[in-house]
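DM from R.C. (forwarded with permission)

"hey, sorry to bug you on a friday — could you get me a structure for this? deadline for the figure draft is monday and I only need the backbone to look sensible"
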Amino acid sequence: MTILFEDVSLQFNSKNIFVVKNINLEIKDAEFVCLLGPSGCGKSSLLSMLAGFNSASSGRILVNNQLVKRPDLNRTLVFQEYALFPWLNVIQNVAFGLKNIIENRDERYLIASRYLKMVGLLSHARDKISELSGGMKQRVAIARALAVKPELLLMDEPFGALDEKTRLDMQNLLIEIWQDLKPSVVFVTHSIDEALLLADRIIVMDKNSKDPTVIGEIKADIKITEPRPRTLSDLVEIREKISSIL
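My reply, with the result:
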């Protein structure tokens, strides 16, 4: 799957202010890309346009040479807030996105069970969402996103609300799943360390200090070649480079 941002701008309605302006970016098949930067620099806006939830004011976003016009099951989004249905149990949540794809309920549940096993929650398939910890809820959200077999997994600070240990566990789980299934991943984060541990490429974004009509811009595009699993001690120079930018 190839993703192209071609001169993409997002402008506030009736104001001469751009969230981002003239963004050009290419993401290759099965690449793990982190959009890194502080809050309010346009990271989530780029992700939302790529998901099809917002439309660019100008320019084009292409996925496999097809113009992004609306949300699509082939581009699934995982939020920080989990966005699970509390009236459904765990397996019902994971199977929910399959309703429009697979008519047979047992087949949907079989597929959902496979992904619950992948995230280590098969034994909790019949639990209520309210009975789960934050980390478990995020595992359910990831399983639900993966169950429809997307080529592109979009993640908007999915581990931001988790404690440090759970966050590290989820990062390791995500890398294992990505290496197994090989979707393209675009992952929004404000944590330099998280981006260093996860990404093939880090797109560094920050507030625009030169043009008062543009809020955020891309400052750097950094490739990470260090093999996984990684430790931050292996990435000190890159961390210092990113810190000097932000």
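R.C.: lifesaver. The two ends are 30 Å apart (CA to CA).
me: no worries. DSSP finds seven helices and ten strands in the chain.
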